[in-house]
Structures are given as C-alpha cells and as structure tokens.
Amino acid sequence: MSKNILVLNGSPRAKGNTALLCEAFKQGAEQAGHIVTQFDLQKMTIHGCLGCMKGGKDPESPCVQKDDMQKIYPAYVKADIVVLASPLYYWSVSGQLKTAFDRLFAVAETDPSYANPRKDCALIMAAEGDTKENWKPALDYYTALVGFLGWRSLGQVLAGGVLQAGAVAGKPVVDEARQFGASL
Length: 184
Prior knowledge:
By secondary structure, the chain is of the alpha/beta class. It has helices spanning 17-31, 69-78, 95-103, 105-108, 132-149, 172-183; strands at 4-9, 35-40, 81-87, 120-126, 152-159.
C-alpha cells in the first residue's frame, strides 16, 4: 500500500552526506510506490517557535508565524511517515531540523488536548564519528521524542566516518538508505 512520506532534511549542506542519503532513501521509497515529499530546510526561512501557545486556531495555517512552515504543515498532516534527516551536530540534530520540528507543535494545538498526530517515523543521520558513544546522545533524543509523541520508529540509517561533503558517496550505507526506503 502506498504511503505518504515526509522527509525533513535538516542539513545545511545542499549537497552533503545527509542530502545524498535522503536522495537514496527517496529513490527506494518511490520505486516501492510511495509518495515522497522532501523539504530541504537549509533553503527555507523558518523562524524559531515563539512559545506563544496561540497556534491551532486554523488547521490550514496552524501557526501565528507566517514563514516557510506554511509549505510543510499540509505535507506533515498528510504524511503517514516522517523522516528526520540531519547531520550529527554537537551530538544531536541540526538547528535547522530542531527549529522546524519545534514548529510542528502548532499542528498539535489544533487538537483541544494538544495531541500530536500519530505517525510512523525514521531517522537518517551522517556524522564524522562512528562509535556507539558518538551516536548515543542523538539516538537517545530520537527515542525519547518518538516515545513522547507516541510514534512508531521504523528504523534508522546511520552513516559514520563521513565528515567531508560527499564522503558518503559510494559507501554501502547509501544502498542501505535506498533499501530502507524500498522496504517501507
């Protein structure tokens, strides 16, 4: 059955390792018949959450701030699967991804009990380091986030040892990302 997949690419490098992994994932998912919508957050103007608690009044435009999140909200609401894609920055996701994800709270505000929409999700990350200790803080964050949202994680693709932009090209993890997309 075809799924709607939303990929939030939080890498500031337009042609970096995370972007290459997202492209491979997208190819696999589309070949499997899924519909993939990807937002490259580095190209978008997205302001940080104001914490104003004034969103949710209009499901079509849930946040009081009117920036490029307006493009993401409809795809997020329609998505069956949300893919969080980011380089590992200071043992967590990039600021670009965190900012966009924080702003998704406006969609929860459309529900009287602030319930987040139920989704399946996945994680795609690239990093310089490639040890268990290196990945642990980011994976702890992801696991906690998924748990608190009540989402179901479908898995992750972790590409370590890839500091320079494009270093992931030709590595087996690119095929892993493609196969992961195809397996959903």
